[in-house]
Batch of 3 targets.
Target 1
Amino acid sequence: MLTTLTEDGDAVLILDQTLLPREIVQRRLSTLAEAAHAIRAMQVRGAPLIGACAAYGLALALRQDAGDAALDEAIATLAATRPTAVNLNWALARLRRLLAPLASAARAEAAWREARAIAEEDAAANAAIGRHGMDLLAEIAASGRKAPVRLMTHCNAGCLATVRHGTALAPVYAAHDAGLAVHVWVSETRPRNQGLLTVWELAQAGVPHTLIADNAAGLLMMRGEVDIVVVGADRIAANGDTANKIGTYLKALAARAHGIPFYVAAPLSTIDHACPHGGDIPIEERDGRELGAAPDVPVANPAFDVTPAGLITGIVTERGIFPPEALRELA
């Protein structure tokens, strides 16, 4: 199982995901600036992994200066890196609550311990998501249709998007380890083609898969070649509306049109109970150069869209599977 973030005592080691799958390069983050760049430039990506990396970035900053002004400045720097993934602000708020009452001399060590706890909790939560989500795949397998279970995902919500196990792919890995036959349709997810990361890690794990252009998803569903859709999430509003990589909404619409269950897999830390509905979720607008257009071409490049709760069959968390309308009970 891939591990995307580790520590060596003085620094944090990450896989540079901007180079995958062509090159496997590990980066060493030893300063606040390096951690902030890693998040902003998408060397680390995926809401849970961003949160863990931000926590370590704050701990690194406090080794240089742990005063109140430095704490506030470091949190502001990290919070500004990516606006949509709620785990980023969740991790920073958790650290602020812990550190604010402490004397400056105690903050750096306490921050490092808490960052480690956030990383370990993420791995445990995602393992639990895998166990709960595998039950959905087992039900499909037991329904009498021929193996394998054909699951479609979008972008990358696997090991590379988390500290360990993944979110949307955690049930796939759990099923594969248990001997349940699964095939994954992998949407390449333009413009950054992050499905290529999913293909790479599924190949590492020996899980059968097929790469598709992101706009081929509807045709496969129409043909009856998809049993279930499972995606990750960058922020889930209190009413169950879910922000995820651009193109997720279209898959949810196609799944509803063809009677295919559509699930979101995410840890509880991705639920933003302070955000009433999807219209309040900030959508990151990325540099238009990612689309490869000429400099004089007007470009809109939203990185995420919002899938309304009414299109979501259920949300798979570490505490079980819940209908979107039940999320308020988890606050």
Target 2
Amino acid sequence: MKNNKWNKILALLLGGSMVFGLAACGGDTGTTESPAGGSESPAAETSTGGETGGTEIAADALVVQVAYENNPGEPVSDAAEEWERLAEERSGGTIDIQLFPSSQLGSKTDLIDQMLMGEGVVTICDGSFLAQYGAPEMDIVSAPYVFDNFDQCWKVIESDWWAEQTALMEDNGIHIITTNWIFGERNLMTTSPVESVSDLQGMIIRTPNTASYVRAFELMGAAPTAMAIGDVYTSLQQGTIDGLENTYSTLYGSAYYEVAKYITTTKHVNMFAQWICSQSWWDSLTEEQQTILSETGDEAGLINNDLQTSSTEEYMQLMQDNGVTIIDLTDEQRAEFADASMALYEDPSITGQWRDGLYEMIQEIIAE
């Protein structure tokens, strides 16, 4: 798996001059989260001048703390390392990206609190999380059964609607640096098999603390709970919950296969993510620094997307090797889950801060 992964990275980097000019588009991230009950990772090294990845770092370099919940070895973390290398190389060592995986600097909420104080911290979020910060309609891009594939996601982020949402974010102190990062397809992992909506009835399923997720699983008959991700492994082990939903990289990276032996391919969310920072901090940068961070962020996003795509089958096989049964639903079976969740888009507790017909408008954008 590792050799394949780095071969793909090398191939992409050799074509870097072609990739550089692309205007690419891209959780809880959605979350790909820190390991349940995992040990602390070593703190990132801070540099006061020196060499990182072959680039000499200037003593007075701009320090950018890039913090995230993903663990080393997951695609997002591997691609973040490439972002670090690319930005430092492109800037001639005048930008010093320091990586803090595995929630070393705290949760996304903690990090955004730091951002809103103007600190130079960068983290990764999905739309459902950003909806809490001035753009409530962003929730829909992470809601169940909106997108069938990631090409549809890219159409939305090129739309006038998306530009409007990012402007609202900026008005509320948050800047999106890059948004072309695939976070992954989210599926259901449980301690007993689920092949139909009836099998899900009454099962306690951990979801992100996002109203649309909670409501969707209620509509599918589950008993969702917005438990902190750090409690999930132990809760599965003790039988407090019956399952969770997430991307393959998180399900494998956090070793949930040790305590839950069934994955159902509900494919309820195709999740992409945004790297964000403080708008006031971003405005304090030079135009050159802004360009380097955003363009190399997009380049690293393309690397991430290749890793996410190529690693999916490998993660599935690794979990099967560890005793997990993957229940691959037919389109007809999956439609039952989608149909059950559609009432979400007529529920005023979810759509109350959305414009009328937002779901239909998004479907029109992706149909163009």
Target 3
Amino acid sequence: MAEITKTRNPGVIRLREKGTAAVRGRILAGVMTAAQMAAISRIAEEFGDGTVGLTARLNVELPGIDRRNAGVVAERLRDAGIEPGSTGPTLRAVVACKGTVCRHGCYDTQGLARAIEERYGGCDLPRKLKISLSGCPNNCARVQLNDIGISGRRYPAYGVGECNGCGACEKVCREGAVRVDDDGVLYSEEACIGCGDCIAICPGGAIGVATEGLRLFLGGRSGRVLQVGTEADDLIAKDEAVAVIGRLLEYFRENGLPGERFGEMMERVGEETVFAAVGMRPRE
């Protein structure tokens, strides 16, 4: 994106009780340090009602703030390394599952979330836009129900080493994509979903990586209107993900109408047109 503009006074949310607000802080990839948690606790005790809430997008909210003190609270959060925000017509906080440390994770989900946040976090858009990152097909982050969703994939290459016929790959495969019998290993590419579990569990290193990358979904949303995102026809290389996100945000900023969600824009201009902006096509 050529220029990033960010919403003024982000993260301040009016509450039911007159004169009160909650201040929301963006927690990068849902991970805080112990020092940040201690700082949040002190701020909540001094300015709020002594409680701290967690949002569905892995942020923190400090309720019970006198609206006259919201600016001070926002600055105190910044002093703790937490940027107020994830409100208004902006790029909302990027949600990432724990694929970075999870044994099923096919890529560094938290690292990618931080990279996207650091480059584009809080940028102004025609309407709010949500990005979700899942490390594998288990899809804990529900990527298809976000404006932009990314899920890790790792497909196996059988026969790169000597198989001892232990059957560990067959036992771990929930989709039945691999069978081990007296004739050797029978693998079905059609049934494989790219979780990579068989690669990790093979005790003899007989299974390699045929291909790996990120599966892209566009145009999903939840809430009052449920819409499942459209899947791309191919994988994105991990080191290209931030650039792809940037091109999609730029396209949305230039082509989306005020108040229009990303999926609504896709319906108006055509899915193929939006995917073409990042050199891809929707999966048939």
